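User: Second chain of the day. Same drill as before.
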Amino acid sequence: MSGPARAGVSGVVARASTKRGRRAVYRTLRRELRRKHIRKSQYRRWRATYVRSIRTLRRLRGARATQLRYVLTSVESLALRKRLIASRMPVAFLNLERNRQYWPRLPYPAVGDQVSFRGSEILFQYFAGEGLQLHPLSTFKKANHLHGFCERKEPDCDEAALRRILDEMTALAVKRGRGFIAWEYLFYFGGGTPPWMSGMAQATGIQALGRASQLLNEPKYAETARRALGAFTTAPPTGVRTTGPRGGVAYLQYSFAPRLYIFNAFLQTLIGLYDFSNLTGDARARALYADAIDEGRAEVPYSDVGDWSLYNYRGHESNSDYHELLREFLESLCSRRQGAVFCEYAKKYRGYQVDPPTILYEGPATGTEDEPVALRFNVDKLSAVQVTVTRPDGRVVFDRVATFRRGTGAFTWTPKGPSTFTVRVAAKELRTGLGKRDSDSADVVVANRPG
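Assistant: Same format as last time:
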């Protein structure tokens, strides 16, 4: 998931007492049934899921118990905090049921692994210590892939699977704010307390629903998408609309992080709104896109560090995956003709990935024996730089390697006698794993020490 480092298990979950938690869950289920917010069949099914999960947990030990316990106490925490509302119950109890099914006997996953269950298309991702968690962004990406197969009439087209995945996700949407639904995450992440939402996941869902509505001639999917647009008119922490770092409207990746401006997430959010408005002619989606596109254009140059991209505004650099993701989104907006700046930086960021480094020796050309010489160079990419000094007979008298960021660097060498030495500087770029190289060389004339 695109985002900040995941925080540890929250104290709210860690302190959720089994006895208090159980009472809260049972009480909440009874209350929602009494108010006719849930049906009796739902009450019975979700109560049974909860009871079976407690019994399963008693039989588990070690890490498997830890995963199920986290999800179980997450449901209790929602109930204790009065956040286990009727529209959140389907996703909360589905999460619990899938973990109950998985942890007693199925293969232990690696961190980040995604799994699905028989008869279902939606994706769950494993987070260490937090069990399997419904992952809306990955699920809607899967829906977009299914749509693409069918739109291109490829053998992998499966319209039934596309319908199933969107029907499932429609049923798991939560009435999050006044007049809008959202697809929520129910685990602690980067300091965010569940339930939280992602602007990127929301817009990708809207995009997938709009595409399927056209392909399958199903107006209900477009209507579901329209019900989700309110997230982009609502301020955090309920929604994701905020003021961006360049002063315009921006949409957040994480509803709990109002000052974290993630470049790739913002651009994909814009793409989702743009595509939905184009496919359906929806005026509200078009207005939401128009509100924020100028901020998107203004932010893009601030993602450039000269040889790579930043992940977030004035933040840390992208890893290779996030750099490529940002480049892809820039290319997508370029292909949609949404501004020259997107084309410019898509091309530039591709160059950062494939162009070799350039290194130039900058001097000096002379030196004096027994006096330190700073062998200066300029390199245009993060690289491992090696400097080698050789005598006329080819004997190496100095050889060093170090990592340098873009810009000017130097190695200090003290010549031990007069001669004409050859200095060679070589760079191997470090970001892409391709190991592309460049080199430069020059002679340095070392004179006798005076006197």
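Residues 361 and 377 are 4 Å apart (CA to CA).

User: Great, on to the next one.
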